[in-house]
Design brief:
154 residues, single chain, mainly alpha, two-stranded antiparallel ribbon, 2 domains
């Protein structure tokens, strides 16, 4: 061992003392470092937990909005389906005559799609919900029954 160097251990006891001191210093530094790491880990855990909670709340809000939207869509679909059913029922009840209907200018018979001529009452009854009751107008009554005063006009 070189003599004359200050702080240099001179015997085994000093070497052991120096090793203990170094161990304590290293141990204290390790403990301080571990404490810092624990603080950082705690802070990181708190931040992470806070972010997780915020994300969970956001997802819960989005889920609630989606559920509400789905409920509204279902309600609108049901309402639309109800209206479509009502319109289909109304359409089934409606029978209309459309287009040009070929009619004889003399006898007033109507030509059907197959080319046959039929009485106007028959044609309209087949193509609509209309029903007929027969009577006679005053002009026809005078023409057909000139001797009878059916309507009391004379």
């Amino acid at each position: 061992m070189p003599e004359g160097c200050p702080g240099y251990p001179r015997n085994k006891l000093q070497v052991i003392g120096l090793l203990i001191a170094m161990t304590r210093k290293v141990h204290k530094e390790d403990i301080d470092l571990l404490k810092k790491e624990i603080r950082y880990a705690r802070d990181a855990a708190n931040i992470t937990a806070s972010l997780v909670v915020k994300e969970f709340v956001k997802r819960e809000e989005v889920l609630q909005r989606l559920v509400k939207k789905s409920e509204i869509e279902l309600e609108l679909r049901n309402e639309l389906e109800k209206k479509v059913n009502e319109l289909e029922i109304a359409l089934e009840e409606i029978k209309t005559l459309q287009g040009i209907i070929p009619i004889s200018s003399c006898c007033k018979k109507i030509r059907d799609d197959k080319g046959y001529w039929e009485r106007i009452e028959t044609y309209i009854s087949k193509h609509s919900e209309a029903a007929f009751s027969h009577g006679i107008c005053p002009a026809c009554a005078k023409k057909l029954y000139p001797d009878l005063d059916i309507y009391g006009e004379d």
